[in-house]
Amino acid sequence: AQSVSQHNHHVILSEAASLELGCNYSYGGTVNLFWYVQYPGQHLQLLLKYFSGDPLVKGIKGFEAEFIKSKFSFNLRKPSVQWSDTAEYFCAVNAPDKLIFGTGTRLQVFP
Amino acid sequence: SQTIHQWPATLVQPVGSPLSLECTVEGTSNPNLYWYRQAAGRGLQLLFYSVGIGQISSEVPQNLSASRPQDRQFILSSKKLLLSDSGFYLCAWNGWQGDEKLFFGSGTQLSVL
């Protein structure tokens, strides 16, 4: 069965620190990959997505993710986080007809 | 433009009572529809999804059921709620038209007491 694993459940950083959130998936077919973000008190919104082409994907707010097919990974990165990046981050992979989410990573950024 | 409506926003129900959460989508046809639950410390969990009227796939065995009586209507139900059914329930849809972005409803916070 398809699954998505996010290894970091809770990450605490200071402003200006670099960020990398891990995401691994298990699915044998062609994948589309997503990172969603949920800011406190808000709904989920799309951060970035990978469908095909350049495996390094750039999203909003300075985030990027790299699809490494051989490692079944799609890690999220940001070179310098801000306090406003405090949120819950969800990795997701599409299998036919559905999206499977990881369990999420809570990011807390302190000024 | 497409919109998704989900209600109620909050619900407090006693254990053993029935449940009905409704979700409707406007501005699109034949969407894929989903029910997710976000429980504390668990992240998002896919409960049900539907690719068409009357077609329901269940992801986890549980106390809940789903129905799709119309193309753009998706209902989450339970005959008897359990304490463990408490959580934040999200309805979502996407259209699979080259952009599988998922659009979420505003959610229902369910507390079973």
Regions with little confidence, pLDDT below 50 for 5+ residues of chain B: none
Rg for CA atoms of chain A: 13 Å
Secondary structural class of chain A: mainly beta
Give the rounded overall mean pLDDT of chain A: 88
> What gross morphology of chain B would you assign?
globular
Description:
The complex is a heterodimer of chains A (111) and B (113). By secondary structure, chain A is mainly β. Chain A is built from no helices and twelve strands. Chain B has no helices and eleven strands. Chain B has strands at residues 3-7, 10-13, 19-26, 32-39, 43-52, 55-58, 65-70, 73-78, 87-94, 103-104, 108-112. With 113 residues, chain B is mostly beta strands. The radius of gyration of chain B is 13 Å and the shape is globular. Chain A binds chain B through residues 6, 32, 34, 36, 43-44, 46, 49, 88, 90, 92, 94, 97-104, and chain B through 32, 34, 36, 42-46, 49, 51, 57, 90, 92, 94, 96, 100-102, 104, 106-107.
SSE arrangement:
The complex is a heterodimer of chains A (111) and B (113).
Chain A: E1 3-5, E2 10-14, E3 19-21, E4 24-26, E5 32-38, E6 44-50, E7 56-58, E8 64-68, E9 73-78, E10 87-95, E11 98-101, E12 105-110
Parallel strand pairs in A: 2-12
Antiparallel strand pairs in A: 1-4, 3-9, 5-6, 5-10, 7-8, 8-9, 10-11, 10-12
Chain B: E1 3-7, E2 10-13, E3 19-26, E4 32-39, E5 43-52, E6 55-58, E7 65-70, E8 73-78, E9 87-94, E10 103-104, E11 108-112
Parallel strand pairs in B: 2-11
Antiparallel strand pairs in B: 1-3, 3-8, 4-5, 4-9, 5-6, 7-8, 9-10, 9-11
Task: Using brief descriptors, characterize the structure shown.
heterodimer; A: 111 residues; mainly beta; six-stranded mixed β-sheet; four-stranded antiparallel β-sheet; B: 113 residues; seven-stranded mixed β-sheet; 11 strands; 0% helix; 58% strand; globular
